[in-house]
Design goal:
Elements lengths: L1 E4 L2 H7 L5 E3 L7 H11 L19 E5 L2 E2 L11 H5 L4 E5 L5
Length: 98
């Protein structure tokens, strides 16, 4: 089981209070986790990734095991601690401004 932590605005949209736990079939990658997340919570489709390009939305970042995975290719396997469920996959809202 994969643990996913969503930012507050996406938790509200998905109507979840805390971590989301997902079953991911096959290799555990950013793409497979996001596919499982969007299948379980269809209201999140298009909020994390662009519908057409499937690229990460600009003001969201992905972290796991204290590593920024935002610019990693979507099919690179996630760290083993995430696969085992020991660590969560974090989707974090980025802050912009000057």
């Amino acid at each position: 089981m994969i643990r996913v932590v969503l930012p507050a605005h996406l938790r509200t949209l998905a109507r979840v209070a805390g971590e989301v736990v997902l079953r991911v079939e096959g290799p555990v990658t950013q793409r497979s986790v996001l596919d499982a997340l969007e299948a379980a919570y269809p209201m999140l489709r298009g909020t994390i990734r662009d519908h057409a390009t499937q690229r990460r939305r600009p003001f969201l970042r992905f972290f796991a095991c204290e590593q920024d995975l935002s610019h990693e290719p979507p099919d690179v396997p996630l760290p083993d601690a995430v696969v085992r469920g020991a660590e969560p996959f974090l989707i974090v809202g980025a802050i912009a401004g000057g």
